[in-house]
Amino acid sequence: MFYFNEKPAYTRTTVLMAVQKQLELYSESTLKDIYKSFFQDEFGPGHLLENPEKTRIYFEQELKSMKSRRRCYAEPCGRGRNFYRVPMDLIIDGSVSAEVYFSNFHSGASEFILPDMDKWKKKWSIIFRILQGHRDLIKNFERDSLEIHEVLKNGHYVIHHSRRYRELYNPHYRIFSVHC
To answer: pTM for the whole thing?
Structure first.
């Protein structure tokens, strides 16, 4: 069987559809939260697996400290081409065991190869240009764009959810490959 591996370029339609979905689910999302979603779809959780033992310990600590908000569905990261956010509520609510959840998270993440940083910067610049025309719909656009620019300029790429997003939505999830 033949599989075509080339993913379509970021288009105005695909970017705006992804942002619209994000804002429908999380209306207080800022540009940082949108960046994070697109970043996660490209990079997945690969950066979290540099130390698998530490990743497992953090996972278990997070489980112990969280309360379920009854989130039971996976949601796409960015355009949803590579990765989905799968809520840890599934474990707390008894839908899946912690072992099965973590095993699937780890296996999907460990198979993913991190993209080239220069390619990611180019992709983000395309996304950013599309979003500039809709800056009035995205909270903290100007401030967050400066922070993202600085992070990328310094050779980094990880951005955390905005404080407002964390306060309102209390996110507890892991990133799973669509190929799991």
So the answer is: 0.89
Residue 98, number of CB atoms within 10 A of its CB: 14
The tokens describing 108, both together, are 């999907």
Helix H, strand E, coil C: the string for 39-102 is HHHHHCCHHHHHCHHHHHHHHHHHHHHCCCCCCCCCEECCCCCCEEEEECHHHHCCCCCHHHHH
Nearest 10 degrees: CA dihedral of 112, 52, 40, 74?
100
Ramachandran sector of residue 44 (left: φ over 0; alpha: ψ -120 to 50; beta: rest): left
Paired strand residues for 139: 30
d(CA 76, CA 177): 10
pLDDT in tens, 62-88: 999 999 999 999 999 999 888 999 999
Beta-carbon contacts of residue 120 (< 8 Å; ≥ 6 apart): 39, 42, 43, 157
Q: Find where tokens 């790429």 sit.
A: 157
Burial of residue 161, with CB atoms counted within 10 A of its CB: 0-12 exposed, 13-18 middle, 19 or more buried: middle
Contact indicator for 142, 52 with CB cutoff of 8 Å? no
